[in-house]
Amino acid sequence: MKTFIKALLLSGSLLLLCSCALWPGQENRTDLVGEESAVTVNSGLSQKKVTVETAAGKRELQMEVASTDVERRVGLMNRRTLDEGKGMLFLFESQGYLNFWMKNTLIALDMIFVDETGTVRHVVHQAQPCTAMRDADCPKYASQYPARYVLEIGGGLAQRWGIAPGDRVSW
Prior knowledge:
CATH architecture: Sandwich
Strand order of the largest sheet: 6-5-8-3-2-1-9
Order of helices and strands: HEEHEEEEEEHE
Helix content: 10-25%
CATH class: Mainly Beta
């Protein structure tokens, strides 16, 4: 009986150890972005200085660059704050109608859809975080015109800075 209890305790301990451990390569897994426990924060991304030419003058932004599928999927998820004048620049391989959502995003954002010529085509103001349990319940924010790039900045900044369709973006 003692042997049976020891074996049971040992197998239970191994099961607990295996269920808590991350296997090599899983530490920063982002392919399961629908599951909050698997979402990480993008870090170590390259930076670009982005200039937006508005009717009121030039505005400078310091942007993190999301250029891979994984970086774009994670985006600004799980960020508790975003300093004014900072954000994320999403680069896509080709122009098209783009859809974004706010799953696992903790702060309101403005989304600026830019075409391949560097012209602002559409601005979504104050997109709100999605706290829905089901991914399907999160609203989608789509470009109204084909776009190749998207700037995400703090909610309300586009309006305060006067960023609007027709403005020019460069980096």
